[in-house]
Design a protein that fits this description.
Length: 136
């Protein structure tokens, strides 16, 4: 479900700035087809709807940005713009995700996200994050 407030919507971890594309779909339970469907729900909003991004990585040295429009995403998003089909997106996402390195902060992020942002604690009530010493 897309949350719209006036002329604005928040994309969460689904859609990035047009030159950033979209989120990966390789986390446990991830599904590239469902990701595409979610993105298409956002893209059904009026073209002038402002979209606020949850993430931006400033591709190619671009300054960090956080706002675009539905129209800009439809026309220019490098992963879903220009009318890319569901099949094209799923193929692209699966192939690209298979080549991606493990995100640097995946271990602490999963520990917090799996608890709905409630920080993990040890038996004494101290906030802790466990980090594997042999990598993932």
């Amino acid at each position: 479900m897309v949350q719209v407030l006036g002329d604005a919507a928040f994309t969460g971890d689904t859609l990035f700035m047009p030159d950033g594309g979209s989120a990966c779909a390789d986390f446990p339970g991830g599904d590239a087809g469902q990701l595409y469907d979610s993105i298409q729900t956002v893209l059904t909003l009026p073209d002038e709807t402002r979209l606020f991004m949850c993430h931006d990585y400033g591709p190619n040295g671009r300054d960090i940005a956080w706002e675009t429009t539905v129209g800009a995403e439809k026309a220019h998003n490098i992963h879903v713009g220009g009318g890319k089909t569901r099949a094209e997106f799923v193929k692209f996402r699966i192939e690209r995700d298979a080549q991606q390195a493990m995100p640097k902060l995946i271990s602490p992020a999963l520990q917090v996200n799996m608890r709905a942002e409630d920080m993990p604690r040890d038996e004494d009530g101290n906030t802790v994050l466990k980090v594997p010493v042999n990598g993932l």
